[in-house]
Amino acid sequence: MNAKTRLFAYSIPWNLALLTAGSFLFAMGVKSVAVPHGFLTGGVSGIALLLYYFTHNLTPGLWLLLLNIPIAVVGWIMVSRRFVLYTAYGMFSITFWMEVISFTLPVHDQLLAAITAGALAGAGAGISLRSLGSSGGLDIIGIILHQRFGFRIGQISFLFNATLFTASFALMETDIVLYSLIVVFVTGQIMDYVLSMFNQRKLVFIISEHAQDIADHIMKEANRGVTLLEGRGGYTGLPKQVVMTVVNNVQQKKLEEMIFTIDPEAFVIFENTFNVIGKGFSRRKVY
Questions:
Q1: Which of 25, 60, 102, 279 could staple 124 via S-S, CB 3.0–4.6 A?
Q2: Over the stretch 84-120, which tens digit does the pLDDT of each residue have?
Q3: Closest CA to 257 of 246, 271, 268
Q4: Is 278:203 a contact under the CB 8 Å cutoff?
């Protein structure tokens, strides 16, 4: 990622655009699919829908906004003011879209509706979290736990929602709760996928008698950094050099051909990695 791209990624218009698009998708998943089928979407929005179904005093969007306010205060204290200001925009944006959206997606099968609602909500939440803010609610708690303890945001969401729906069995029909759990599961999976899809890289370990030659070719032809690790053969006890590098998916095949052209006997390990921070890759996100 070059300097101009990094600057754009941290710009206000780009972050507001992500929050607007993410809020729209999330609101569409809730208002156009989940609500017509009586599903819960989990997290704070799930609590908002539960209150809506049993009171009918306010709209789902307004319930969500009211519940988000105390959580936003916690985010203001524990994350950053910039994060909460962006999140406030995301919260109001979701409420706006929920009030504006009046159409229902023509999905009649309950299972397909649950998958559709989860996919839309997960994509929306994931897009929002790629900004320097979020769409509010459980995302704020997820960001705090992710920064402090490294938990994945989708996992936090699923665990919270599993607890919520366990209590919901006493209040709603069993089938509806089970379909809602599908919504939550799909939401968590799609959210994690959206968050990682642009960061996926290949961590490569190369064990070869021509380690230095391979390293030189990687630096010159692939324009990637290389680290030489000192190792020792387990059987022979002889010292070996291990080449370590990181490439993107497009470069993988070219790297493979380069390695085996130099040394057909090389031993190579390609491992998926979803978050590479440093020069030439992602910049550490500071909320």
A1: 25
A2: 788 888 889 999 999 999 999 999 999 999 999 999 9
A3: 268
A4: no
Percentages (nearest 5) of helix, strand, coil residues in the chain? 65, 10, 25
**Any idea where the domains of the chain sit in the sequence?**
3-196, 201-273
pLDDT tens digits along 246-281: 887 767 888 888 999 999 999 999 887 766 666 655
CA distance 183 to 114: 5
Cα separation of 63 and 50, whole Å? 10
Q: Is 63 within 8 Å of 203 (Cβ atoms)?
A: no
> Using CA atoms, how far apart are residues 49 and 276, in angstroms rounded to an integer?
38
The beta strands (E) that lie in the chain are given as 201-207, 227-232, 239-247, 267-273
List the one residue out of 208, 265, 198 whose CA is nearest residue 231.
Answer: 208
- Answer whether 67's CB lies under 8 Å from 47's CB: yes
Beta bridge partners of 205: 244, 269
DSSP string, 158-180: HHHHHHHHHHHTTTS-HHHHHHH
**CA-CA distance, 50 to 178, in Å (whole number)?**
15
CA distance 83 to 79: 7
Structure tokens at 55: 């009171």
d(CA 220, CA 285): 29
Q: What is the C-alpha to C-alpha distance for residues 71 and 188, in angstroms, rounded to an integer?
A: 20
Q: Which two tokens stand for residue 198?
A: 């642009």
241 forms beta bridges with 230
Give φ, ψ of 205 to 5 degrees.
-115, 130
Q: Any idea which architecture 201-273 has in CATH? A: 2-Layer Sandwich (3.30)
For 126-146, letters b (16+ CB in 10 Å) and e give: bbbbbbbbbbbbbbbbbbbeb
